[in-house]
Design brief:
The protein is α/β, with parallel strands linked by helices. It folds into five domains: 185 residues, Rossmann fold, CATH 3.40.50.300; 73 residues, Orthogonal Bundle (Arc Repressor Mutant, subunit A), CATH 1.10.10.160; 183 residues, P-loop containing nucleotide triphosphate hydrolases (Rossmann fold, 3-Layer(aba) Sandwich), CATH 3.40.50.300; 149 residues, PCRA, domain 4 (Orthogonal Bundle), CATH 1.10.486.10; 66 residues, Thrombin, subunit H (Beta Barrel). It is built from 28 helices and 21 strands. A hairpin with a 3-residue loop joins β17 and β18. α2 crosses α3, α9 packs parallel to α11 and α14 packs across α15. Bound molecules: adenosine-5'-triphosphate and magnesium ion (MG).
Length: 714
């Protein structure tokens, strides 16, 4: 694309922002107004006009997926690969910086990333060591505290605890936690950012180098930056490098995790002569969808306020579906998705969005039954599954024996006779001498401190790791992975177990070998293995292989930020679920939930379907729910309730009800296509809501809606 083509694709204010001289710019504009598009065009423009070479660009986006698509778009526009350009997430870029400068960062070369799950585990262990009661010092709260302090740029020494005993203790735990991480060469997510800031702050030469290198810094989704990210950007921009930030205050949805909406207001103060840009035309959604979104967000106070319009058509009304329960909601959505696909909408242009990860399962099951390929973003992601984490822990130990989190995880997995008592001894030794678990175990072995049995078991484990390290040296990554699965007997231990779950675990481990095989090793600073481990920790599942090119997209509302789809299903609009119950008592948090709803609605290009259920089973118990207040905030004229299905449901129930008076009595034997035969043990409700509980011979008890279950009376 030449320069005039680049600019012709844009409206007037967009073009001005793209072709502006090298000054600071802040683009604050509503959803779908082309912010991300402008950012990508600006990069292409700067490179094309020779203002900067690709390696002088640093672009920060919110997800790895967004970063990849940003790079693709730029390469298409420029018609050349731009590998030297740094395009990534804050975490990804911070990680890259720390890898290149591990010495300056005071880290071992083989440092590993600690995900939230492992962080939790370490904190629990720490509490035990410090003899603190988990009930008084909940690990989650401590995790929250530590990450929050890091997000604000504070090390334990800098936390002001006002001499309050509780806070003082929290700080002590924070300090002890840091000590463990340091010893084991572990870096948690918040630490990546904090340390990436610190090495620039404390290292004049390094800072000079990067300030000279990154002549243009561009940030998408700026409204969700936190304190440390903002400080890092300021540092890199220095006095000379223009910063180009785009965002939308109405889409700020990470306040609960430390994001500072105030960064938008600070920007114009901190960066003098900033050019502020407003975009008002929406190119994404139909008039109806846009009007509904605008009306909803009007209910928030403290907005910068903006006027978003489209010259596209009004499109179809928003569909609203009231389901009896979550299963029926899923069934409706799956049927509706089938219709969309039949109408020719590509599957990856269809998205199902939900507030909580746990909601995805029933929808997944529905899609599975209908053989519709789908992909879940986030949630129980591939790299977070138990068996995959076990396998990764072995790989991490091969790379770094001092990784305490991995040592704990697999020292007795699969079971090899290393008892809790032995591990406890090792922990105590580690604490007493300020060394890692691996070193402690070695010491205890040398000093013959274990009983013969325990000593043999732990010795065997350590040999195993050493043996794997020797055996796999110089192997390609997938061979390392395969050898590790075999030598560790991890895969064999699951193969012994004949349950369905174990079978899935074996499949997942096989999938890990595939993932290793498909892994593209890019960075030269790292070995293939370390690079893969970093990828697993950072991308957590985004790279999971999918058989299908264009699966239906399932994700939480948080993950959907910045994306767009032809047809969007916004599910579970119930009080307590969305808005989330944790947010309902605080006006600030409630506003954030509403912004999340705004984000959800504005993902839709052509059609939006909203649904809720009267009864939902979450975390094991059934709850009767009220429709979300957000539904009533949508003007009636944009919404059409779906009724046809319900009448059909009632009609079919009535047919069955006749049968029910002479059939579904307690104790009746019935058959179900999928669950097999069973006995009716109780019943409740009537009409479309009539349900029976059946104790199936094979799978145990289940509640079924009579209207749908197609039960046959035996
Ligand atoms: P969000 O706030 O959701 O992140 P955004 O402001 O980043 O949205 P984009 O994703 O950049 O918006 O753009 C929304 C859609 O509108 C995209 O499909 C984009 O290609 C299209 N679009 C934006 N500007 C134009 C334009 N001038 N001409 C044609 N299409 C445009
Ligand atoms: Mg965007």
């Amino acid at each position: 694309m030449d320069i005039s083509d680049l600019l012709n694709n844009l409206n007037e204010p967009q073009r001005e922002a793209v072709a502006a001289p090298p000054v600071h710019q802040l683009v604050i504009a509503g959803a779908g107004s082309g912010k991300t598009r402008v950012l990508a065009h600006r990069i292409a423009y700067l490179v094309r006009t020779g203002e900067v070479s690709p390696q002088g660009i640093l672009a920060v986006t919110f997800t790895n997926k967004a970063a990849r698509s940003m790079r693709d778009r730029i390469e298409t526009m420029l018609d050349m690969p731009v590998r030297q350009m740094w395009v990534g997430t804050f975490h990804g870029i911070a990680h890259r910086l720390l890898r290149s400068h591990w010495q300056e960062a005071g880290l071992p070369q083989t440092f590993q990333i600690l995900d939230s799950d492992d962080q939790h585990r370490i904190i629990k262990r720490l509490l035990k060591q410090m003899e603190l009661d988990e009930a008084r010092w909940p690990p989650k709260q401590i995790q929250w505290f530590i990450n929050g302090q890091k997000d604000e740029g504070r090390r334990p020494d800098h936390v002001d605890h006002h001499n309050a005993p509780f806070e003082e203790q929290m700080v002590r735990i924070y300090a002890a936690y840091e000590e463990v991480c340091k010893r084991s060469g572990l870096v948690d997510f918040a630490e990546l950012l904090l340390r990436a800031h610190e090495i620039l702050l404390h290292n004049k030469n390094l800072l000079d180098h990067y300030q000279r290198r990154f002549q243009h810094i561009l940030v998408d989704e700026f409204q969700d930056t936190n304190t440390i990210q903002y400080a890092w950007l300021r540092l890199l921009a220095g006095d000379n490098n223009p910063l180009f930030a785009v965002g939308d205050d109405d889409q700020s949805i990470y306040g609960w995790r430390g994001a500072k909406i105030e960064n938008i207001q600070r920007f114009t103060k901190d960066f003098p002569n900033t050019r502020t840009v407003r975009l008002e035309q929406n190119y994404r959604s139909t008039g109806t969808i846009l009007s509904a979104a605008n009306a909803l967000i009007e209910n928030n106070s403290d907005r910068l306020g903006k006027n978003l319009w489209t010259d596209g058509s009004d499109g179809e009304l928003i569909l609203l579906y009231e389901a009896f329960n979550d299963l029926e909601e899923a069934r409706y959505i799956v049927n509706s998705i089938k219709n969309c696909i039949d109408k020719g909408i590509p599957r990856n242009e269809i998205a199902v969005l939900y507030r909580s990860n746990a909601q995805s399962r029933v929808i997944e099951e529905g899609l599975l039954r209908s053989a519709i390929p789908y992909k879940v973003y986030g949630g129980m992601r591939f790299f977070e599954r138990q068996e995959v984490k076990h396998a990764l822990a072995y790989l991490r130990l091969i790379s770094n024996r001092n990784d305490d989190a991995s040592f704990e995880r697999v020292v007795n997995t699969p079971t090899r006779g290393v008892g809790e008592k032995t591990v406890q001894m090792i922990r105590e030794q580690a604490r007493a001498y300020n060394i890692t678990l691996w070193q402690a175990a070695q010491q205890l072995l040398d000093d013959k401190q274990f009983t013969a049995r325990a000593g043999n078991a732990i010795q065997a484990f350590m040999y195993l790791i050493e043996e794997m390290a020797v055996e796999t040296k110089d192997m390609p990554l997938h061979d390392i992975t395969e050898a590790m699965l075999k030598t560790s007997t991890l895969i064999a231990s699951y193969e012994k177990d004949k349950s369905e779950k174990a079978r899935m675990r074996v499949e997942n481990l096989a999938e890990l070998v595939t993932a290793a095989r498909q892994f593209e090793h890019e960075e030269d600073e790292l070995s293939e293995l370390d690079s893969f481990l970093a990828h697993a920790a950072l991308e957590a599942g985004e790279g999971q292989a999918s058989e299908y090119e264009d699966p239906v997209q399932l994700m939480t509302l948080h993950t959907a930020k910045g994306l767009e789809f032809e047809h969007v299903y916004l599910t579970g609009l119930e009080e307590g679920l969305f808005p989330h119950r944790m947010s309902m008592d605080e006006p600030g948090r409630l506003d954030e939930e509403r912004r999340l709803c705004y984000v959800g609605i504005t993902r839709a290009k052509q059609q939006l379907t909203i649904s809720y259920a009267n009864v939902r089973r979450l975390h094991g118990n059934e709850q009767y729910t009220q429709p979300s207040r957000f539904i009533s905030e949508l003007p009636k004229e944009y919404v059409q309730e779906v009724r046809i299905k319900r009448q059909a449901a009632v009609a079919s129930t009535m047919q069955i009800e006749t049968a029910s008076s002479n059939g579904f009595q307690l104790g009746s034997r019935v058959a179900h296509v999928k669950f097999g035969e069973g006995t009716v043990t109780s019943s409740e409700g009537d009409g479309a809501h009539a349900r029976v509980q059946v104790n199936f011979d094979d799978i145990g008890s289940k509640w079924l809606v009579i209207a749908y279950a197609k039960l046959q009376i035996l």
